[in-house]
Every structure is written in structure tokens, then in C-alpha cells.
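Reopening this one. Same input as before:
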Amino acid sequence: MGALDGLRIVEFLGIGPGPFAGMMLADHGAEVIRVVRPGPSRDLSLFEQHDVLGRSRTVVHVDLKIAEGRAVVRDLCRTADGVIEGFRPGVMERLGLGPEVLLTDTPRLVYGRVTGWGQEGPLAQAAGHDINYIALNGVLHSIGRDGCKPVPPLNYVADFGGGGMLLAFGMVTALLHVARGGGGQVIDAAMVDGASLLAGMAWQMKAADMWSEETGRTTLSGAAPFYDSYACADGKHIAIGSIEPAFYALLRQALGVADDPLFDAQMDRTTWVEASGRIAALFATKTRSEWCAIMEGTDICFAPVLSFDEAVDHPHIRARGTLMEIDGCIQPTPAPRFSATPHAAPRGVEAGHGNARALLATLGYEPEQVAALEKAGVIA
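Same output, byte for byte:
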């Protein structure tokens, strides 16, 4: 089941964006075979047991440091539609599994590569993490409060939005090109590029002189009193996004300031600090539940700020099935949703282990060959 049913993707195990892209492809029906090195690992740790990003995989353990192991993986890639890897530039080439080799074997192959800095450029070989990639392209500078240092948005922006999701998009786009008669190709998904792409509207605002180079002074960064989060009487928080005039009018009415001239000129930045203080004082007079009873479901553009534990039980999250449980682990449901090709129920990470023998049999390996590879420690 799923829109990508019938596609085979070989994923070389990494962390973060590569597994996220593999999860997205597997969620929507692709057969994703994860290549993992054999031997002691963190497989038994609590984190690995609940590997949300590793769901719905077939896992094979192959030692790529051994020539026979690389030959097994090369045979596997000959049967694949796509490959995903997230190593530093040059690693796969040194293993003899780079795109120049695998695309020669299979000209229709889509070879997806995700890195922080990209396959080329002065920083291509440098180490880095999400925070570094969004620092260099201007994105981190735009996230934070006025007068405060920039705030890392966890690793959502570069690792997953600008890395894994862009890699998944690139894979599907290139696979569509192949399905239309084109050849395979290499995808260079750099997180520094992808995170910059996510900031497209910010660059548009800058061009339209609707942007401030000072952190925390734009409408969407918390400077505007009508687009912010506020503490309630019980210490919990709510979020409002009453940007449009009609929604802003509803907010004023609900807060009892419809006739207060301080709030008349919504976009007058000289009033924002004072207006924010007044609104904060008003929200502090009631609990979050009381504000939900007044504002939730209206066109004010309101929502309670929920923790992960609280989000599980919210009626809207439950009604849509936005979260699900697999093997005792609460995790996001596959998205987006397709009317004609719905996704199958994801499988837990343990479901794919121990499939090397069966998989190699489909590649034409005889039982005695498989046994010899096992004995030599090439596969496990």
C-alpha cells in the first residue's frame, strides 16, 4: 500500500536527515532496506528500541570494510530504484560504492546524498550540526527575542525540514523523472541550502522592506503583540496569531479592549511593547483552560501551547490520528494523506531485523554462499 509501492530504496544507516527521508519514503509504500554494520551496537538501548525514524525498514547487517560485504551491497543496489546516504563527501567513493560506480551498474538509479554543507564548497569536509548550518545562512539570526541571543529551534530546521524532507522530495522528484523515461542522477541535498530555502518568505519580506536585521523585531518573531505566546494564571501558555484585521478585531473583543485606542493602529510598531504588556496582563487573569473555553475554535487564531504529553489527548489530534502508538512508542502518523493510495500501518523498528538470508536469496545467492558470508562475518 502507498503511493510509492513497488519502489526499492537502499539506505546506508546514518543519523537524523537520512533516516528521516527513509522514513518518509517507507511510510508511503517504498521498500526501504537499511544497511547496518554488524557487531555490537546500540541496538538494545532504549533509544534504538524506539527508533521512530527507523520504522518500516528491512534491516540487513553487512560489513562494508570487507570487500565481500561491499560486493553484496553493490549487488543489492543493482536491484534498487534509489540509494540514500549521509556520509561526508568522499566516504562512499572510498568504499567503491559512489555514484560513478552504482550509476554505471544501474543507469536509472537515483542516488540521494544528504550532508550539512553540501558535496562541494570550502566547508564541504568540515563537521557541523543543525545549529551551524542555520547560523551560516542567516536563519538562526532571525530566531529569538528582541535584545536576546538567537535561540536554536531544536534541530527541526536544518536536519529535518531542510535536510531529510528536502532529500525525500528530491528522491521522489528524480524517481518521477526516471518513470517518465529519464535517466538516474545524483541528488546533493545540503542542509545549509535546504534550511535557506525554508526561509524563502523571510527573504521576500526583506525585499519588500518588511524585515528587520535585528533579531526578534519582525511580526512573526514575537515582536507583534498579536502574534506571540502568553502565560496564563496557572503558568501554562497560549498562542495567538491574529494577523489579519478581522481576526485581530475578534481578539480585541475577546480580551475586552475593542474600544481601547491603544490597540487601534495594529501595525504601529511604536505601540507594540505597551500593547504586549497589556495583553500579557489580561491573559494572566485566567487559566489556560478558561481561555480555551473562550477562544479555541474561533477565528481569533488561537491554540493552547501543549506539551507532547498533553498533545496526545487533544480532541483534534485524536480525531485526525496525528499521533499513533507503535510497540509502546507514541510517534507521528505518516503525512501527508492520500485519498487513493493511503499508507499502510507503519511497522516497528524490530520488525525488519534478521532478513539478510531471505534478501540475499532474492539476489541469487545460494544457501552455502550465504552461510560462508555469515561465517566470515561479512553479514550477520
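So the earlier flakiness isn't reproducible anymore. For the record, The longest helix spans residues 156-179.
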